[in-house]
Task: structure prediction
Amino acid sequence: MPSSPTPSERAQADKDLHEREAREQATLPYRWTQTIGELDLTIPVPANMRGRDLDVVIAKKKLRVGIKGQEPLIDGDLPHDIHPDESTWTLETVPTNTSSSTTPTCTSPHLHSGKEISLHLDKTNKMTWWPHVITSAPTIDTSKITPENSKLSDLDGETRGMVEKMMYDQRQKEQGKPTSDEEKKMDMLRKFQEQHPEMDFSKAKMG
Result:
């Protein structure tokens, strides 16, 4: 039976995973962030683009964004359902990157070129982090998402409590430790044992 990784080995593995994810995400023609209930992404486009030049389709389980007459910048199935009516997109002007000012005719979507498509997707399931925007894209490890970068403080009290419990249970499972529900049952059994020392709990099972 293989031994469990040491804290330093686990930290190095986490670092390697983070670096690999960063490299994979950097190759995408868009940037994205998410909270537990919403997802936002931005796609740089040439500065001369107008709304009528764009092809944007936001459906319950699919997303397509691109410039008419060209290959889509993003096109595929979403990993989970969204509310199309509550999801939006806009074409926004952004400060031009001076480093690319010497090549004003460049239309590469990977360069900051003066405008960007900004999309906001409203998740149907408000208790799920997405590993990617579309199923064909590289994934991130959602178990590593922390309260800070998921804007946990923005959630209402009940939802926040559920999310914190879910995250705690995920960490416990990764470490082979009992979940919060299992801990609660064990704690109740301990207290009952203390109150009833005359009873035999040696064969008690937690389920």
Q: What stands out?
A: The beta strands are 31-34, 38-46, 54-58, 62-67, 74-77, 88-93, 114-122. Helices lie at 7-26, 157-174, 180-195. The mean pLDDT is 79. The two ends are 26 Å apart (CA to CA).
